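Journal club prep, notes for RB
We'll compare a predicted complex against what the paper describes. Inputs for the alpha-D-galactopyranose case:
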Amino acid sequence: MKIICKAIAVTAGVLLAARLGAQPALKDVFEKKFLVGAALNPTQFCESNSLEAGLVKRQFNTITPENVLKWEKVHPEPGLFDFALADRYVEFGEKNCMFIIGHTLVWHSQTPAWVFQDDQGKPATREVLLARMRDHILTVVGRYRGRIKGWDVVNEAVAEDGTLRQSPWLKIIGEDFLLKAYQFAHEADPEAELYYNDYSLENRAKRKGALTLIKKLQAQGVRIAAVGIQGHYNLEWPSASKLDATISAFAKLGVKVNITELDLDVLPHPGRNVAADVSLNYKSAAKLNPYRNGLPESAQQELTERYAKLFAIFLQHRNEISRVTFWGVTDGNSWLNDWPVAGRTSYPLVFDRAGQPKPAFAAITALVHE
Ligand code: GLA
């Protein structure tokens, strides 16, 4: 029995290697342009899903944790930090010589309610919240000092109209919560790159607000290494000109641009808001899940062309872009199967549910000739 299992394992390994070996690797194809990465879940970095772990090792040279470093996971209760999975994530990245990203320290979402409250459930004071923020950042960033190379320090602080988002951080601490977050992160690891990360920066008003914010932080002495453009896109939005203008506008401030959460939604959007607001949640309906039995050729073609156009823009800006990270590894584990409608069949990435490269993979790798 043992021998048979071993033989099966070896055969499966050889088949897998042959299959993977036949493909070029994104990290090699784009090596001289920018890093290419993916957001990982625990089945990938703990390697219980060996197919996807293998794919990640072969294809990517930078990784982001999809959830395990968010406040609710790593610091679920006052005084209680749980680093079990985050440690595994960082070990996986080190073992495979990857540029390891930390995501994310200060965000209004996936942060437990207690963070913003006192013992009676009333809003915490500015002093208490600042002390909590400092403790959180020093503990989490400090633990991985010198190992996690770049941090999304603040995520999504700007509203659609370009004003600062009315988050509990802003309401309780005031506008300098941003400055403080970057100061604490720098204190915890002076060598780490510090980023600002957001979605819909391609839209004029929001972009203007984020540009103002970055300039202000720079004037206050904060060294922002890069702005992360999340890149939760669909077939129409953003236009090539919007994306192009956005990358140029941030680069002019002397910061790098990272595409941090790239995916391309081909499913119908039920509401007006097409941005990546994670709190959206619409009721499911058959017409909202049109491709549950597979993606028709025409839609596959549209996705492929759209990916090729986006990567052509990224390549034009290769001197300004440090990294392009997909939000997920294969279509099967993308958050877009459950957002903004639960239980759909989504096709937003360049590897299909079996871990096979899609036509979009061939189209983007074909853009690089040297
Ligand atoms: C935002 C966050 C990510 C993730 C995505 C959706 O963009 O920055 O951490 O939650 O939404 O999964």
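Talking point for the session: The longest strand covers residues 256-265.
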